[in-house]
Amino acid sequence: MKKSEAIKKAFIRSVPVMAGYIVLGMGFGILLRNAGYGVLWAFAMSAFIYAGSMQYIGINLISGGASVITTVLTTIMVNARHLFYSISMIDKYKNAGKYKPYMIFALTDETYSLLCEDKETDNGYRFFVSLFNHSYWVIGSVLGSLLGAVLPFSTAGIEFSMTALFIASFTEQWITTKDHVPALTGLLCTLVCLALLGADNFLIPSMLLITLVLTLIKGREGRTK
Predict the structure, then answer these.
(1) Position 165 confidence tier, pLDDT thresholds 50, 70, 90
(2) Burial bucket for residue 20 (CB in 10 Å: 0-12, 13-18, 19+)
(3) Angle at 54 between CA 52 and CA 80, to 5 degrees
């Protein structure tokens, strides 16, 4: 695929994420500005951390003077899901060459949802999908910080925007694929762990349970073929 074709196709594919990332990024920028950190902080965190929900949590960590150990453990807990779903991208990324380091860094939930079921094998296309999504998040964060400096905002409830994005991603995957087993597995395992372990402790156990169940299902399907 020519570079120009890859850029065009990647942009079109990433437009739904743009709508969400710019709005969510603005929410992050506004919250960060209200916590006393300006536009350079918004740009740097979104460009070099690029971790969505973790950035929202990070505002409380940096403004509350959290220790390094607390920050590290919190980051692992919040982003542990990346370890599990990124395993399915190993084959897709193994021949990515010079694009691979950035594509690994930029593999967010939404980028994963676009690429995991995509039949396009061109790594240039995958790179530009990742780059466009990253740029939307940075632009939104910077815009939010700038708006927060000149316009009064009530930040009550802004944190829910990340939850809304996860719900939107789940809905999109449900609509665009006929195989609902992974989605139902994830939902059921999460609800079970939430009920048994509570809201503070369910995340990593639910990821482990989801991975185990999907592995067993895939293994069983492989034996029946």
Answers:
(1) low
(2) buried
(3) 100
Question: Does the pTM of the predicted model rise above 0.70?
Answer: yes
What is the domain partition of the chain in residue ranges? 3-159, 178-220
Sole residue written with tokens 């990070």: 58
pLDDT: which is higher, 20 or 166: 20
What is residue 225's predicted lDDT score, i.e. its pLDDT? 57
Number of Cβ atoms within 10 Å of the Cβ of 31: 24
Note the pLDDT of residue 217: 80
CA distances from 197 to 104, 140, 200, 207 (A): 31, 35, 8, 13
Contact between residue 16 and residue 131 where contact means Cβ atoms under 8 Å apart = no
The tokens of 59 are what?
């505002």
The Cα 3–Cα 124 span in angstroms is: 7
- Statement: residue 18 has pLDDT above 80: yes
* Ramachandran quadrant class, 154 (left: phi over 0; alpha: psi -120 to 50; beta: rest): beta
From first CA to last CA, the distance across the chain in angstroms is 34
